[in-house]
Design a protein that fits this description.
- The complex is a heterodimer of chains A (359) and B (275).
- Chain A has 359 residues and is an alpha+beta fold.
- Helices cover 23% and strands 31% of the residues of chain A.
- Chain A has helices at 42-50, 92-102, 107-120, 136-148, 166-183, 194-200, 218-223, 228-233; strands spanning 4-13, 16-26, 31-35, 57-62, 65-66, 77-80, 154-158, 187-191, 203-208, 211-216, 240-243, 245-246, 251-254, 258-261, 272-275, 281-283, 290-299, 303-309, 315-321, 331-335, 342-344.
- In chain A, helix 2 packs across helix 3 and helix 2 (92-102) packs parallel to helix 4.
- With 275 residues, chain B is mostly helical.
- Chain B folds into 2 domains: 2-49, no CATH class; 65-234 and 242-264, MetI-like (MetI-like fold, Orthogonal Bundle).
- Helix content of chain B is 71%, strand content 0%.
- Chain B contains 14 helices and no strands.
- The chains are: A alpha+beta (359), B mainly alpha (275).
Chain lengths: 359, 275
């Protein structure tokens, strides 16, 4: 298993710049997830690591060896495709054995490794079937089996779960996580699904418009998003971001002349305030400085997903316990606990008030 | 409902009869004796005979139907397989690398639109210089060119139908070009190869013009050879023998088409990607 590094990697298709100078190191044995909206370049980045796309400038290193100019078959990586890409004319057994046969491994070793992979992925009964006779989940497991038998330097996953139905997706997600544990392999995983990113990753790389927005553990990114993009991309429903202006006296002015008091800290540069829907407290209208009307109410079983019209502040999404029994049209008060607030400057970058800055 | 169905079948049968009338008439004529042909033009044969077929299948000093069949068979086989050998690498490069897709591909495919007769004189001169006149290989080469446009088109479509992820997956599995082509692309193109072979063989078998121009004796194909049977003993046309030789000449491509029919359609790539 190996370390994969990108050094100032750029990619453009004629005039279009899809990857703008990305530098990143995926450590040995790490599960790294590239996440971002569609068109952010995450798949392109993965395909560049695989060698399926050329690099316009910059270098790609595997274990400190420069592989930028190498063809995919010389990089010793495995890839699981979104569409599975199984060889339709070969049986499951031949599909899994393909890479080993290509590498001219001895027959008995191939048999042994295929049997082991089949057992691990519960494919033993299907070894002699063609891919067309398998269900989507089984096909995905064959694709994973094909990737693991050759013991690659790293695994690349390109949205492997997006063609599965919701129940199967959850199951397969857990299988991939346990596979990572048992193999201890370096894995790079591309997804647009933040739940997959949060649950699988040791480290998440959030990409937008071909640039890295932030790199960090799921907890870091969720609790201390570096900018409004990351703040709003992770978490569902997404974080509320409200226009605000720091007064420089430790206070922050919200639209409609509402004030949020902070004990100290340099609040001058603050132009936006973020708060997650689940951290907004629903109170009585009379007790609150900020009030609003429930505009929309979605019942999710354990929680209610509300859209509250908070007048000059705009629409806020709020998660409330379903026992609260809030109905559409009801006036409520909203409490913003200061410790739950995130502050951003005019360019959307995070502003730190420093420890002990909050009341 | 029953009546509706019966009516439909009657219409079908009627149309099929009209469409196939020349074939039926030829087959029936082949079963009639010369004397019956002159007095009985109906579709019912009074005294069916295989005499005409015996005449055709008997080797005489002048006519040898087996020789023509063999010439046609070998030339048509070359004419069907050679363009596949040439067009397959071309098709892959056009689809996957994009070379020649803009100009060469439409150019070759449109060769089909040109009347073949315009090639006749230059080809004859070239062939006479290259000692290819009246050879099976020479005829096969020309038939290969006749078949090239359709072959290239079918194979380009076949390669384009293979999802690119399959080739990428093979690359990721460590396969270099020879193994990628041999183990993934070629097997997936098999239905296209069969289709191409059948169409190419039939086209080549039925080709008449170049068979007439470029051969005189040793390499005369069945289509041209069949015309030799029409007037065996001077004067009028022997309709019975002519019909019999046409039936014999039509059988090989007909059998090939029927045997291969099930394999012509159908795709290999189901189950490759998605569900």
């Amino acid at each position: 298993m190996s370390r994969v590094s990108l050094e100032n990697v750029c990619k453009s298709f004629t005039a279009l710049e899809v990857i703008k100078s990305v530098s990143l190191t995926v450590e040995d044995g790490e599960f790294c997830v590239f996440v971002g909206p569609s068109g952010c370049g995450k798949s392109t980045l993965l395909r560049m690591i695989a060698g399926l796309e050329g690099v316009t400038s910059g270098r790609i290193l595997i274990d400190d060896e420069d592989v930028t100019g190498l063809e995919p078959y010389d990089r010793h990586l495995s890839m699981v495709f979104q569409s599975y890409a199984l060889y339709p004319h070969l049986s499951v057994r031949q599909n899994i054995a393909f890479a080993l046969e290509t590498a001219k491994q001895p027959k008995n070793l191939i048999e042994q490794k295929v049997a082991e992979a089949a057992r691990m992925l519960k494919l033993e009964e299907y070894l002699d079937r063609r891919p067309s006779a398998l269900s989507g989940g089984q096909r995905q497991r064959v694709a994973i089996g094909r990737a693991i038998v050759r013991e690659p330097k790293a695994f690349l996953f390109d949205e492997p779960l997006s063609n599965l139905d919701a129940a199967l997706r959850g199951e397969t997600r857990i299988e991939i996580a346990s596979l990572h544990k048992s193999l201890g392999a370096t894995m790079i995983y591309v997804t647009h699904d933040q739940v997959e990113a949060m649950t699988l990753a040791d480290r998440i790389v959030v990409l937008n418009k071909g640039q890295i927005m932030q790199v960090g553990s799921p907890q870091e990114l969720y609790e201390r998003p570096g900018n409004t993009f990351v703040a709003q991309f992770l978490g569902s429903p997404k974080m509320n971001v409200i226009e605000a202006s720091g007064t420089g006296r430790g206070d922050i002015k919200l639209p409609g002349n509402r004030c949020l008091a902070l004990s100290e800290g340099n609040s001058e540069t603050i132009r936006q305030v973020g708060i997650r829907p689940e951290q907004i407290a629903v109170t009585d209208e009379a007790d609150a400085t900020i009030t609003g009307t429930v505009k929309l109410r979605e019942y999710h079983g354990s929680v209610l997903n509300l859209v509250v019209d908070a007048g000059p502040i705009g629409d806020l999404s709020v998660l409330a316990p379903s026992v609260s029994g809030l109905a559409e049209g009801k006036r409520i008060g909203l409490g913003f606990p200061t410790e739950a607030l995130h502050f951003f400057d005019a360019r959307g970058q995070r502003v730190e008030l420093g420890p002990g800055a909050r009341r | 409902m029953k009546l509706h169905l019966a009516l439909r079948w009657i219409v079908f049968a009627f149309v099929a009869l009209i469409m196939n009338f020349p074939v039926i008439a030829t087959f029936i004529t082949a079963l009639k004796s010369p004397s019956e042909i002159s007095r009985n033009p109906s579709l019912v044969v009074d005294s069916p005979t295989l005499e005409n077929f015996v005449t055709v299948l008997t080797v005489s000093d002048r006519l040898n139907v087996y020789h023509y069949l063999w010439n046609s068979f070998s030339a048509a086989t070359i004419g069907a397989i050679l363009p596949m050998l040439v067009a397959f690498p071309m098709a892959w490069v056009m689809v996957r690398r994009g070379y020649g897709r803009a100009l060469l591909f439409p150019l070759i495919v449109n060769l089909r639109a040109l009347p073949l007769i315009i090639f006749a004189v230059p080809l004859y001169l070239m062939f006479s210089v290259a000692y290819l006149l009246d050879t099976r290989i020479g005829l096969g080469l020309v038939l290969a060119i006749v078949n090239l446009p359709l072959t290239l088109m079918l194979l380009v479509n076949a390669v384009a139908e293979i999802p690119i992820e399959l080739e990428e997956a093979a690359h990721m599995d460590g396969a270099r070009l020879p193994r990628l082509i041999g183990r993934v692309v070629l097997p997936l193109c098999r239905p296209a190869f069969i289709t191409t072979f059948v169409f190419g063989f039939i086209t080549a078998w039925n080709e008449f013009l170049f068979g007439l121009i470029l051969t005189t004796q040793r390499a005369v194909p069945m289509t041209v050879g069949a015309s030799f049977f029409f007037a065996t003993s001077g004067g009028g046309v022997q309709w019975g023998v002519a019909a019999a030789v046409m039936v014999v000449a039509a059988l090989p491509p007909l059998i090939l088409g029927l045997v291969m029919y099930r394999r012509i359609s159908g795709s290999m790539v189901s189950g490759a990607v998605k569900g």
